[in-house]
Give the backbone structure.
Amino acid sequence: MSLRNRKLTLDEFQQERTEVMATWPTGTGVDFEDGVRYQLSLPDSKRFSSVLAQAVRENKTLCQPRAGVALVDEHIKLLQFLEDSCDLLPSTIDAYTRLNHYEKAAEGIERSLAAGTSLLNGFPAVNHGLAECRRVVEALKKPVQVRHGTPDARLLGEITLAAGFTAYEGGGISYNIPYAKKVPLERSIRHWQYCDRLVGLYEEHGVRINREPFGPLSGTLVPPFISHSVAIIEGLLALEQGCKCITLGYGQAGNLVQDIAAIRSLRELGDEFFQAAGYTDYALSTVFHQWMGGFPENESMAYAVIGWGSAMAALSGATKVIVKTPHEASGIPTKEANRQGLDATRQMLNMVREQVFPPSPTLEQEVELIKREVRAVLAKVFELGEGDVAVGAVRAFEAGVLDVPFAPAACNAGKLLPVRDNEGAVRIFEPGRVPLPEDVMTYHRDKIAERARAENRAPAFQMVVDDIYAISKSKLIGRPR
Ligand code: 5AD
């Protein structure tokens, strides 16, 4: 394979840029120099990295919704409606744009205009183009991030960053494996090197752009060490291309100790691996995603899930939390439901803010467990890549060394099976070909056996299925009836 974890030269980047900009008419309207000028004119209050840095200094957890509709004016109204209830704003991109189906997005815009309501599940930024996207940034007081799920997000990045968005979510693994069926991993990683190089180019011009690999992956019983391994690989790939402001993410699993240990280990492992690779000039923060699996339909029950996630976000010391809404079980929320999710979250964050989870041997043990798991997996990734983390990532997925549970991508082995233990922590039932140390696997098996005894049934796939639906049916652990 020609993929290497090496900073793209300016020539390589420029050559590729010409092709990228020609893929849709709005690409021709993008002027990088003008983008830099506009970015430099933004006040700190509208710069993602500045707001994050302040939160890190103050040990504060910020909150951010998801939101996006088809038309620019409606999108602006939506974000203005949410703005006073949150610290950071999103623009969630629609599914057609994520698949680079801009013709379909154009039809969606036309149909939305005719219907007088959004018929897309997000904001089609590429179709709207630079000037219209800038209108969004101009209309708001707070920083705006592009949130999507796009294996090839090169044109989207060019347009939105030139428009003044100051943060960009995604990565070559995290926006492929959980989102696409047939996109080769080598290709999506290569396309994300372009996105990272673009961010790196802004950095070279004095513009700080936040980069956030998508932490939760499939959002379904993902063990912390799996998502941490992917997050750290994507962090390394981003740093190589010149990114300097990285937010690593994790999706709530549901067990108090495991979730707090996950955010702590994520931050510490991030520094460990970034510094071992020779990077020192970067800012690191973390994001905690409220429960990404199935939600209860009952809105009062949904608020409890949101509240527990908010408490964990604050207690874990995450820099920001991505917020769910009481409409989660039914689809895209109304703007009112979206704000209600934010208000519930802020109330909890404010109540928990000053509290610290007391030091405990149980917590320390969980932190150490995750660290050992991540180190074992990443050692194998580097070995497979003969020192190159991009090559290693592709080969590790081929070999099943990296394996994301319940992900649709054909290049993902799907052999690893997670299940909850007797306290609801996500453990490894079947490791597939993921190289966990023998004593670590013994620990997982013991924890699962403890639950099996309590439920008077043998550990089996039914337990996994029960766990997947448990929270939507009002429990954490899928106990037999
Ligand atoms: N507006 C609000 N939330 C959205 N989500 C996806 N698209 C939008 C949108 N346009 C949410 C889903 C789910 C998560 C993955 O993103 O409801 O919670």
